[in-house]
Amino acid sequence: MSPTLFPTSVAGSLPKPAWLAETQKLWPAWQASGPALAAAKRDATLLSIKEQEDAGLDIITDGEQSRQHFVHGFLEQVEGIDFTRKVKMGIRNNRYDAMVPVVAGKLRLTGRVHATEARLLRAHTTRRTKFTLPGPMTIVDTLADEYYGDRKTLAFAFADLLNQEARGLQQDGIDIIQFDEPAFNVYMEDAATWGVEALHQAIDGLTCTTAVHICYGYGIEANITWKQSLGEQWRQYEQIFPALAASRINQVSLECVNSHVPPNLMALLEGKDVMVGVIDVANNRIETKEEVAATIAAALQFVPKERLFPCTNCGLAPMPREIAQAKLQALAAGARLACTAV
Ligand code: ZN
Hints:
The chain is α/β, with parallel strands linked by helices. The protein has a single domain (34-341), classed as TIM Barrel (Alpha-Beta Barrel). It is built from ten helices and ten strands. The protein has helices at 34-55, 72-75, 115-124, 136-140, 151-171, 188-202, 221-228, 236-245, 289-299, 321-341; strands at residues 59-60, 78-91, 96-109, 128-134, 144-145, 176-180, 209-214, 251-254, 273-279, 308-312. The protein has a seven-stranded parallel beta sheet. It has a three-stranded mixed beta sheet with strand order 2-3-5, with helices on one face. Helix 1 (34-55) runs parallel beside helix 3. The model has no long low-confidence stretch (mean pLDDT 95). The site of zinc ion has 6 residues, from loops. Zinc ion (ZN) binds next to loops.
C-alpha cells in the first residue's frame, strides 16, 4: 500500500534496456531505426512504468525511454534547428564538451513531441503521473545559436514551444509537469532575473501541478570532478530559491543526500512542495531503507511533512539497470519506513 505521506518518484530518466539503446551512456545510440525503433520505445516505456510500480513508487514517469537525451529529445520536433551540423561546445559554463546542434532559423514546433509516451503512461498506470521537459535556460545551454543572438531571447522562444507541448501533456492527463533546469545551478543570477520568468512562460495557462528540477548533474565523471571544486558548502540554491519561492511553480526538486548542500537552504522554499533527493545517482551503492528514512527525517527539520516528496538526486539514465531498480526499491521502502516514524 502506498503511504499517504511522502509520495515517491524519480527525478527524471531511467536506464534503457540494452535492446533499445547503448547502455550506461548519456547520449546512447539507438539499436534500431524507423518503425522498429518506435515499437521498441513503446515497449521500453511500458516496462519502465511496470518497474516503477513494482518498486513501489507513487508517482510514475515514462522513464524518458523515448528520448536519447533529456534535452535533445525535445529538440527533435523543433523546426529551425540544424541537426546535420553538430558543433563541439563547452556546456554548463564549460564544465564538459558536448556535440550540440545549431539554431539556424526561427523556431517552430512541428507537432506534438511526447504524445505517444504520455498517453501510454496515462493508459497503463492508475497512479499519479509526472512528465519531464527540459527547461528553457538549460536548452539554451545545450545548443549553439546562430540566429537569435542572445540567450534570453532564445530561452523565451523555447518557453513558447515548451508551453505548447506542456498544454498537450496536460490534455493527455499528466498530473505533474516538471522542467529540468540544471543550468540554474550554474548561472544563478540569470536564473533569478529571467530564468524563472521563462519558466512562467512555459507553464502559462496550465492547471496541473508544475515542478522544476535543479541538480548538480548526472553522476558522470565531469560532474563529479566539478562538484569537488565547489568547496565545503554548496550554496548555489541560496541564490535561486527565493525567486522560486516567489514563483508560480508548485514543486521544486533538489539534490540532497551525499551533497554538500546545507539542508537549511530547503527552508527558503517555504510554500512549495519539495522533492528531496534521498537517492544518490553518482555511485552504485544501494541505499538502505534506514538511510533513506534518515535523510527524510533530516529534511523534515526544514520542510513540512505534507510538502516533502522523496525523490532521486537526479536522473538515473547512465546507471546499470539493475542498480537503478534496486535504488527505486530503496526509495519506496525508505519513504514507507519514514511514514511509520511521524
Ligand atoms: Zn538532474
